[in-house]
Structure formats: structure tokens, C-alpha cells
């Protein structure tokens, strides 16, 4: 039962990640591979501030959001790039963030990670198992989804879709495309940090390996398999990814030490097949370029 | 003075490896305009094949090297046939092709971990042999790497400028429709391009496997490095790709000396961001290439 509840917690956190990345990938047409990096910024902010500075979990989470937004602002000049080169620059950002987590040992404790993160409390209850943590992670996930839904269904969201469809035309009718893209990049990063804070409070341990380009790609797969450009697609995508990777655990004949790599093969194979036969994903509204 | 000379030798050896990889990437990118992340899979694949023959089966090194390069060429051709050609037939856009290629790269990584674990696979046995010039320690390995990039770069340049096949590839690169109209079989040209570019990646993979060694995660990292080298040097320019690779190797070595080995790669990526901001068409890129970039 705990295992099942654990998967539900995971699904709520991953939904936040996928739904927020979808604003950028699906609605605005900015394909980024640095989402896990910003998720890591949020997770490390909570991990370090609650253990080293005894800060309140929720306050630390807000600071993590601001930090992730600030990092996004710092790297925002990459928005000048187009196509492949923009994607490549986001990869560079992701790799730099990973390397900083690994190598800035005096701040992040390096490869060992941060242990002993205190469980957050909610109305005086300590959320220290999957069952109780659901009372935090599900409302937060619903809140994020609600905010994203309001955002993308508003006139603001229609501007984003116009930018996705044709940036030049959007520019010509007086939309400041770069400013919109910059805002999207910052909002996306801040929402990733929310998920990161939840993860740090839930797992009570963070290490740099969880925030690598591998996980950035995994989040992108959730968005694309579910269907980019529809928020519900990302929720479905997150659930789908958990289902197909967890199914590997129950397949007979796979030695325990290679389960991780077989999981990678399963989702990468699924993405590959999707690119050939269904590039718009399960419920996607548009085909990618 | 000795430190400077030592830095140059080490930097050029690492840069030579990157230049080989970038050159292969550029040949494919300039002709086919596909962001070939699977280049990294070819790179590690060749190294693993060489390792399998010369270290697992313990056949002579040269056989492992030949089989490794042959495997790289075959992998390149198979990738074109099994990945990019079907995508092209569905007129998939560049993002779809990129994601398919990225998915393939992760599949390869997972596969290598599953069959060969994550430990470092090194081709050489024992320490590298060295010689001294003044106070500088030089390995035969770095001399070989630097010589390899010079010879292969010259070879590729002559191939593109002087041979019939080279001219056909350049024709397809500059105008595919017109090239087809004058009777060039572009499918064959694409196979040739993938074979050639992947062969260079294979050489680079074996060079890397020989000294530093290979592990599955290196594939994606070095595919990214290859692309970064191409951008730093200037998209559309083959000398640019080689220079970009060399510049990356030198920067990384310099950063490792100044801040410690672990900061080499982050600083190299920082260099990418700086170049993109101040010289977006690369070190050797021309105005014409800048126009090209705008289309991408």
C-alpha cells in the first residue's frame, strides 16, 4: 500500500514538473532540456536552508522559487538563439547546473548529497510518510495545475500560442516576443523549484544525480508522450511514465542491478516510436515542427 | 615556460579529440541539417567494440581498432537508414528528428549499461609511454592524437575539394533540389556523409577509449561537445569545426589547470554561452554563415 501511495506522491510531483515544462515546450514553443536543473535549484534550496539554517520548509521553498527564477534570468540571453542552437544552449545550462551541484562542494556537499532534511509540517502534523505527504503534494499539484490552466486559457496564453505558431507575425502585430519568452522561462523555472522543494521535503535526501540531463529528458518525455500544448496531457504523461517504468520492476527475468537501465531503454524506446508514429503525443493538439 | 608548453601539448591532445568529433558532426550537419545526437552513440559504440575485441577477446590492438572504426561506419549508415530516412519520408520537422535522435542516444546508453555496467573501459595496458623535451613530458599518445587530426582534416578537405564524391556532397549540401535535378542520387550521398562523419567519430571514440577510457554516459556529453565545437568554430565551416574543437580542448585544459580538473567542462560550456552572446556566428563564421544561422 505504501508503495502505491509513494507512486501517487511521485505522480503529483512529476505532474508539477511536466505541466510547468509544458508552458514552455507546448504553449510557447521553447523546447528546453534544463528543467531538471531548476528542479534541483529548488530542491537544494530547501535541503540546505532547512538543514544548515533551520529555516521553515515553506519559507525555504519560496526562496528556492526565487533562486530558480534568478538563475533563469541569468541565463536568459540564450533566448536570442533559435532552433537547435537554443536547445543546445539549454543543454549547456543543464550541464553547468549539474556540475555546480557536483563540484561546488563547500556549498552543496558534492556527490554525497544532503541528508537529514526535516519533514515539513502541515497544521502541526509531521508529513513523514507517503500517506501524510499526499495532503501536501496533491493540493500543491492541483494549485499549480489550476494556475497553469488559468494562465494558458487567458488572453496571455493565446499570445503564447501565437508566438509558438509564428514568432515573426506575433512580433509584427506589436507583441514583444522576447519579453514573453523571458517571462515564460522564469515562470517555468519557478514552478520546477516548487516541485524540487516538495521532493526534498518528501525524500529527505537530495543528491546531484537526481537533477541531471537524464531527468530533464524524462520530464520532456512526459510532456511529449502526453501531448504538448494541453495541460491535461502532461498529467497523463507523468502518470504514463510512472506506469511504464514501474512495470519494468514486475517483468520477469530482469536482474535487479540493470532495472534502472532497462527503464531508460523503455522510455527512450517509447519516445522514439512516438516520434515516428505519433509525434503529437496521446492527446496533443499540434504536431511539432 | 615549461608549464605553458605542457599546457599546449595537453590542450592540443584533448582539442584534437574534440576536433575529430566536431568535424564528423559538421560534415553531417552541413549536408543534412540534422542535429545528430546519436553521433555520441557512434563514438562510444566504436570504443566499446574496440574494447571488446582487444581487451575481452584479447586479439591484437590493431584488429580492435579496425573493427571499431568499421563498426562506427556501419552504425552511421544504419542510423541514416533506420532513423533519419523514415523521419524524412514522414516529412518530420527538425524538433521531431532531434527528439528521435536524443531518444536513440539514451537507448544506447541504457543498453551499454545493461550489457557492460558503468565502469570505465580503457583500451591501453599499463601507463602511457612518454618522452621528455626540455622539462616537458610528452606522451606518444598526444603526439598521435595531434597527428591524427592534422592528417584526417587534410584528407577530408582534399576529399571534399578534389574528388567526384566530395563535389556531389557539396552540391547536395548547398542545394538538394538542384543536385537531384542534375542527376545526383541524394540518398546515396546521405549514406556516404553518414559513413564518413561516423568514421571520424569512431576514430575519436577509440582515441578516447585508449587513454582516458569510456563509460556509457560519455556518449551524450561528447555529442554535445561536438555540437558546441561546431557552433564555437562557426556553423557551415569545416575548418571552423576543427578550430572550435581545438579551442574547446584548450579552454578546458586551461580551466582545469587554473581551477582544478572538475571545472574543465563547466568552463568550456560557459565559453559556449559567451561566444553565442558576443560572436553568434562563431570564430571562423562569415557573414554568409550568419545569414545561414538566421534560417535555422
Describe the structure.
The complex is a heterodimer of chains A (289) and B (296). Chain A has 289 residues and is mostly helical. Chain A has one domain (2-211). In chain A, the strands form two sheets. A two-stranded antiparallel sheet of chain A has the order 1-4. Chain A is built from twelve helices and four strands. In chain A, 72% of the residues lie in helices and 3% in strands. Chain A is globular, with a radius of gyration of 19 Å. With 296 residues, chain B is mostly helical. Chain B has a domain at 13-124 and 134-219. Helix content of chain B is 77%, strand content 3%. Chain B has helices spanning 2-32, 39-56, 61-89, 94-116, 140-162, 164-174, 176-181, 186-211, 218-233, 238-259, 264-278, 287-295, and strands at 130-133, 136-139. In chain B, strands 1-2 form a two-stranded antiparallel sheet. In chain B, helix 5 crosses helix 6. The model of chain B has no long low-confidence stretch (mean pLDDT 88).
Fraction of residues in helix of chain B: over 70%
Largest sheet of chain A: 2 strands, antiparallel
Question: What is the CA–CA distance across the termini of chain B?
Answer: 44 Å
Number of alpha- plus pi-helical segments of chain A? 12
Shape category of chain A: globular
C-alpha-based Rg of chain A, rounded:
19 Å
Write down the secondary-structure element order of chain A. Answer: HHHHHEEEHHHHEHHH
Q: Biggest interface and its residues per chain? A: A-B, 45 and 44 residues
Amino acid at each position: 500500500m505504501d508503495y502505491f501511495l509513494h507512486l501517487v506522491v511521485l505522480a503529483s510531483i512529476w505532474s508539477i514538473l511536466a505541466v510547468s515544462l509544458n508552458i514552455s515546450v507546448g504553449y510557447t514553443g521553447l523546447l528546453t532540456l534544463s528543467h531538471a536543473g531548476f528542479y534541483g535549484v529548488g530542491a537544494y534550496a530547501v535541503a540546505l536552508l532547512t538543514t544548515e539554517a533551520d529555516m521553515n520548509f515553506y519559507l525555504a521553498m519560496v526562496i528556492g522559487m526565487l533562486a530558480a527564477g534568478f538563475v533563469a534570468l541569468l541565463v536568459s540571453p540564450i533566448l536570442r538563439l533559435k532552433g537547435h542552437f537554443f536547445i543546445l544552449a539549454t543543454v549547456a545550462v543543464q550541464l553547468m547546473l549539474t556540475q555546480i551541484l557536483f563540484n561546488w562542494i563547500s556549498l552543496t556537499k558534492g556527490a554525497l548529497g544532503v541528508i537529514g532534511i526535516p519533514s515539513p509540517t502541515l497544521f502541526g502534523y509531521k508529513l513523514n510518510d507517503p500517506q501524510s505527504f499526499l495532503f501536501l503534494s496533491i493540493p500543491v499539484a492541483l494549485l499549480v495545475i489550476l494556475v497553469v490552466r488559468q494562465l494558458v486559457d487567458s488572453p496571455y496564453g493565446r499570445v503564447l500560442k501565437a508566438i509558438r505558431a509564428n514568432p515573426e507575425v506575433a512580433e509584427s502585430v506589436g507583441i514583444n516576443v522576447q519579453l514573453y519568452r523571458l517571462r515564460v522561462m522564469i515562470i517555468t523555472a519557478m514552478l520546477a523549484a516548487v516541485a524540487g522543494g516538495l521532493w526534498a521535503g518528501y525524500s529527505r535526501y537530495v543528491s546531484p544525480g537526481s537533477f541531471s540531463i537524464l531527468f530533464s529528458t524524462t520530464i520532456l518525455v512526459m510532456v511529449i508522450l502526453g501531448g504538448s500544448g494541453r495541460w491535461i496531457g502532461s498529467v497523463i504523461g507523468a502518470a504514463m511514465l510512472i506506469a511504464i517504468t514501474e512495470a519494468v520492476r514486475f517483468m520477469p527475468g530482469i536482474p535487479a542491478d540493470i532495472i534502472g537501465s532497462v527503464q531508460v531503454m523503455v522510455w527512450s524506446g517509447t519516445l522514439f516510436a512516438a516520434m515516428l508514429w505519433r509525434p503529437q503525443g496521446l492527446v496533443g493538439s499540434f504536431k511539432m515542427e | 615556460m615549461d608549464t605553458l608548453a605542457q599546457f599546449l601539448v595537453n590542450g592540443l591532445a584533448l582539442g584534437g579529440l574534440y576536433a575529430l568529433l566536431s568535424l564528423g558532426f559538421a560534415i553531417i550537419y552541413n549536408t543534412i541539417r540534422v542535429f545528430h545526437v546519436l553521433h555520441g552513440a557512434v563514438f562510444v559504440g566504436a570504443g566499446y567494440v574496440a574494447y571488446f575485441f582487444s581487451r575481452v577477446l584479447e586479439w591484437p590492438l590493431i584488429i580492435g581498432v579496425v573493427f571499431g572504426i568499421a563498426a562506427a561506419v556501419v552504425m552511421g549508415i544504419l542510423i541514416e537508414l533506420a532513423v533519419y530516412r523514415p523521419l524524412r519520408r514522414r516529412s518530420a520537422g527538425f524538433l521531431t528528428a532531434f527528439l528521435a535522435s536524443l531518444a536513440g542516444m539514451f537507448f544506447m546508453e541504457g543498453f551499454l549499461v545493461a550489457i557492460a555496467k558503468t565502469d570505465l573501459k580503457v583500451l591501453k595496458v599499463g601507463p602511457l609511454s612518454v618522452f621528455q623535451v626540455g622539462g616537458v613530458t610528452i606522451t606518444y599518445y598526444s603526439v598521435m592524437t595531434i597527428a591524427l587530426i592534422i592528417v584526417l582534416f587534410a584528407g577530408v578537405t582534399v576529399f571534399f575539394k578534389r574528388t567526384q564524391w566530395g563535389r556531389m556532397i557539396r552540391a547536395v549540401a548547398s542545394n538538394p533540389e538542384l543536385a537531384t535535378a542534375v542527376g545526383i542520387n541524394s540518398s546515396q550521398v546521405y549514406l556516404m556523409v553518414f559513413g564518413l562523419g561516423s568514421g571520424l567519430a569512431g576514430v575519436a571514440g577509440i582515441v578516447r577509449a585508449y587513454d582516458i577510457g569510456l563509460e556509457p554516459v560519455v556518449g551524450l556529453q561528447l555529442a554535445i561537445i561536438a555540437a558546441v565545437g561546431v557552433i564555437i568554430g562557426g556553423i557551415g565551416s569545416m575548418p571552423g569545426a576543427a578550430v572550435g574543437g581545438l579551442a574547446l580542448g584548450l579552454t578546458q585544459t586551461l580551466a582545469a589547470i587554473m581551477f582544478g580538473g572538475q571545472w574543465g567542462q563547466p568552463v568550456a560550456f560557459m565559453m559556449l554561452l559567451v561566444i553565442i552572446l558576443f560572436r553568434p556566428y562563431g570564430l571562423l563564421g562569415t557573414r554568409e554563415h550568419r545569414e545561414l544561422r538566421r534560417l535555422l
